[in-house]
Structure to design on (230 residues):
């Protein structure tokens, strides 16, 4: 079984400041890792994914994440945030060997970007 | 870009009533999912569906829940006798093919309110 922990429920940050949203996972099997974003009144949109290869992955809207196997982490970063980045961010994992591809989500982190 | 569409966006029903939530997945996708998000909580997996049958379901998905793909385009979630605790946002998702590395595409959700 897998579980995902997002360590911060809310992250307030000023516009143009850097931000890091933390994600740790627990799994007895190898996993794929994902970050999704949910803007108000919208569905979940894929930001980026780690499947294999380079541990630093780049996604949409200037976000990137780094997979750290030894720390079982997949933290999301952006060097300079905009007001429009205000949203809920979800880290998720799926079992590499699983054939259903279901995602297990973390609790979510609300990013509040202030002017 | 093709989208997963869900209707209605908001459904209000009385306790004990049956409700059907509707989804139109992306047309060439093969795997379909329902997730729910109770207000303030994490996004939870309910069920996955492939090749016209349930491939996996969670403990939440009890006998009160059922899914169906009645034609080539729709994917529905039925709750037979709604309870107050079924109030949540319900998300439909789909993905193109086999392998857990293809990401899920989510709809905007249906907010179900049980009174």
């Amino acid at each position: 079984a897998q579980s995902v922990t997002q360590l911060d429920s809310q992250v307030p940050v000023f516009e143009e400041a850097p931000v890091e949203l933390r994600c740790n996972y627990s799994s007895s099997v190898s996993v794929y890792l994902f970050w999704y974003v949910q803007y108000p009144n919208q569905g979940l949109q894929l930001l980026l994914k780690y499947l294999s290869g380079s541990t630093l992955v780049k996604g949409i809207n200037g976000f990137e994440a780094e997979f750290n196997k030894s720390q079982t982490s997949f933290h999301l970063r952006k060097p300079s945030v905009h007001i429009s980045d205000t949203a809920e961010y979800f880290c998720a994992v799926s079992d590499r060997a699983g054939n259903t591809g279901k995602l297990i989500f973390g609790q979510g982190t609300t990013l509040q970007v202030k002017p | 870009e093709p989208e997963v569409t869900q209707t209605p966006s908001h459904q209000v029903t009385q306790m004990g009533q049956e409700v059907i939530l509707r989804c139109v997945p992306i047309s060439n996708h093969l795997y379909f999912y329902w997730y729910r998000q109770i207000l303030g909580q994490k996004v939870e997996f309910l069920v996955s569906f492939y090749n016209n049958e349930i491939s996996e379901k969670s403990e939440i998905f009890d006998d009160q829940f059922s899914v169906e793909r009645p034609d080539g385009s729709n994917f529905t979630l039925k709750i037979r006798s709604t309870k107050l605790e079924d109030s949540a946002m319900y998300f439909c998702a789909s993905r193109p093919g086999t392998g857990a590395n293809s990401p899920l595409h989510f709809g905007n959700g249906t907010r179900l309110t049980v009174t």
Notes: Chain A is about 0% helix and 55% strand.
